[in-house]
Amino acid sequence: MSTSAALRRGPFRKAPAAEPGPASGPPVTARVPVSLRSSPRRLAGRALRWAGAIVLIILIAPYALTPLYRFGHPVSTLMLWRWVTLAPVDRVWVPLIRMAPALPPVVIAAEDSRFCEHHGIDWVALRAVVQNAEDGRELRGGSTIAQQVAKNLFLWPGRSFVRKALEFPLALWIDFVLPKRRILEIYLNVAEWGPNGEFGADAGARHAFARPARDLTFRQAALLAAVLPNPLVRRAGHPGPLVSRLAAIYQARAQQSAEFANCLPRPGV
Q1: Would you put residue 163 in left (φ > 0), alpha (ψ -120 to 50) or beta?
Q2: What are the start-end ranges of the E strands in the chain?
Q3: At what angle do helices 103-111 and 145-154 cross, to 10 degrees?
Q4: Distance (Å, whole) CA 225 – CA 88
């Protein structure tokens, strides 16, 4: 560098700015984000509110979905679980009008003989169940078809007081929102009807008798109804003494009662 350049820069070089001392202003305090200042109690409260909101949505969802099930082809929670676990599911939706005429009345006779009279809960049958329990006699199911639809569509299998507590108001709502004919149609298409993932009457009929639901005889329809409480063990295609006896009882009830057809008018009637 030349002497002249050094002389030009030296005298006019700007001194560095002085750093402020302790007395130059108030101390600067670092701001902590609000999220970091939240107490554990506040975080726990927030988590509880979120959990409560999720539980509330789960409880309300079935009531919001039920009116939509006037249409379409609903599936059961058990079918969904089998799909998730890659287990086989065999279900072909069949409208009620395309099923054998014998099937609806024998299923009503087997599962819910007062289906046309109650509004989702059969209080008469429920009182009989309670009386049997108090007397120490064998407990028999008092669930209506509406209750079973509630369980199949929105709840889980197995017996528990929690499930029953959720099932009761749902059954009343289902019976209030949906026509009887639609409730029975849904039940006949979502009920488990075989040991290998057969759901619905058509899959059950094909599994047991190698024929579709529309071609069932009265006897075959009664045999299918007789296995509904335990389709994993009972066999309609190869009935034992119990299934044969129950089928005969259900067939006689259905043939002697014209009441079952009164609450199932055909579409447009």
Answers
A1: alpha
A2: none
A3: 90
A4: 22
Measured CA to CA, the distance from residue 124 to residue 175 in angstroms comes to: 17
Identify the sign of the CA torsion 99, 105, 109, 113.
Answer: positive
Cα-flanking dihedrals φ and ψ of residue 114, to 5°? Answer: -105, 25
What is the C-alpha separation between 218 and 224, in angstroms, rounded?
10
Using DSSP's 3-state secondary structure scheme, residue 156 falls into coil
* Tokens representing residue 264 in the block: 């199932």
Residue 41: which residues within 8 A CB-CB, separation 6 or more? none
Type of residue at 221: A
pTM of the model: 0.80
Quickly tell me which residue has 């499930």 as its tokens: 163
What is d(CA 224, CA 77) in angstroms, rounded to the nearest whole number?
22
More confident residue, 258 or 137: 258
How many CB atoms are closer than 10 A to CB 257? 15
Instruction: Kindly report, residue by residue over 4-34, the tens digit of the pLDDT.
Output: 544 455 444 454 555 555 555 555 555 655 5
> Is pLDDT at 140 greater than 60 in this prediction?
no
Predicted pLDDT at 98: 95
Q: Which amino acid is it at 206? A: R
In angstroms, the CA 28 to CA 95 distance is: 76
Q: What is the residue whose two structure tokens read 């079935």?
A: 62
